[in-house]
Amino acid sequence: MAEHLLEVKDLYLYFRTTRGVVQAVDGVSFILDRNDALAVIGESGCGKTSLVRAILRLLPRNVHTYKGSILLDGVDIMKFSEERFRSEVRWTRMSFVAQAAMNALNPVLRVGMQMAEPLVIHHHLSKQESLAQAMEVSRMVGLPPDFLSRYAFELSGGMRQRAIIAMAMITKPDLIVLDEPTSALDMLTQANIMNVLKGIKRDLQQSFIFITHDVATTSELCNRGVVMYAGQIAEVGDAHQFYLDPFHPYAQKLMASVPTLHQDKELEFIPGQPPSLLDPPQGCRFAARCEKRFEKCDQEPPMLELEDGRRVKCWLYE
Ligand SMILES: Nc1ncnc2c1ncn2[C@@H]1O[C@H](COP(=O)(O)OP(=O)(O)O)[C@@H](O)[C@H]1O
Ligand SMILES: [Mg+2]
Questions:
Q1: What is the DSSP string of the chain?
Q2: In this structure, which ligand is nearest to the CA of 180?
């Protein structure tokens, strides 16, 4: 076994559009270990979905640039053919819960059969064996066994989301990537789903990447965090540490905009807007909105390595 489960190095994903090239993922690097739960946080449009789609090679047709290396257990899966990627990686080693996937369940197939399908297709198990395992993962996500014979429209939003998570777990992948798995749910159901995920995290040796624009929900589940800004990583570190004490001025603003139950603080908001990814600024991408900017910020800051594996893309820490 390699040292890290996943090691992403200099990953780029640009899209072609009629208005120019969108630099959605622009030189992203990070590592993920076994049993890690990594939160990817950032404002809408900063490239979170593009980043994980690049990792899972679930790409749209208008790709302009797609390069970098993605080591899974030390093996560069970017070099795999589409065929090999499909049979050896996607769904078997890494699975994906897409944004709003719970609304895309097949309406004419019973939920249990949909759950079992990846095992029939990817692991060539019989229908019977597959259904037995569907039963097992349903139990883990708190979906009652009799729900397996229902159709999607007969389930509540929370139950559909549980079914989707069970589906991502059924092939026992090393890594499950969830793209805003709770954002379409009401508060109570969000909390229930978070508890389900915490339970899975505790009981299994799986790793997670958890995308969200809601910082508060991830703080209990995730042990590591990445803050993205305009297609790049602004800061990476131990989640608990940087929820309490973020270094990057953007991360500081982001954390200060999160309401907490126990603290009666003035909530901040970040004035201005992120830059266009069609033509991002040459220097630091956050500079235009940053209260701490100085002359040097006209040049692009390097990713600085600080103590405890924390990395910050900001001249202040040079
Ligand atoms: N298929 C695509 N074609 C062109 N632009 C895209 C495509 N998908 C995403 N984008 C653009 O890439 C940027 C990052 O989007 P996305 O990864 O969805 O961000 P997030 O998930 O953080 O909201 C946005 O500017 C978005 O409009
Ligand atoms: Mg998204």
A1: --S-SEEEEEEEEEEEETTEEEEEEEEEEEEE-TT-EEEEE--TTSSHHHHHHHHHT---TTEEEEEEEEEETTEEGGGS-HHHHHHHTBTTTEEEE-TTGGGGS-TTS-HHHHHHHHHHHHS---HHHHHHHHHHHHHHTT--GGGGGS-GGGS-HHHHHHHHHHHHHTT--SEEEEESTTTTS-HHHHHHHHHHHHHHHHHS--EEEEEES-HHHHTTT-SEEEEEETTEEEEEEEHHHHHHS--SHHHHHHHHTS--SS---PPP---S-PPPTTS--SS-TTGGG-TT--GGGGSPPP-EE-GGG-EE--GGG-
A2: 2
Q: How does pLDDT run across 9-19, given as a tens digit for each residue?
A: 999 999 999 99
Range of the domain at 221: 34-58+87-93+177-317
What average pLDDT does the chain have?
91
Ligand 1 nearest atom to the CA of residue 180, by list position: 21
pTM of the model: 0.94
Ligand 1 site, residue 27, Cβ cutoff 6 A: no
Residues flanking ion ligand 2, Cβ below 5 Å: 49
In this structure, the residue with its CA closest to atom 12 of ligand 1 is 24
Please check whether residues 182 and 263 belong to one and the same domain.
yes
Q: Which ligand is nearest to the CA of 43?
A: 1
Q: Which of 172, 205, 228 is the last residue of a domain?
A: 172
Quick one: 225 and 196 in the same domain? yes
Position 69 in a domain: no
Determine the residue of 50, 62, 254, 276 to mutate for testing ligand 1's pocket, defined as the one with the most ligand atoms within 8 A of the Cβ atom: 50
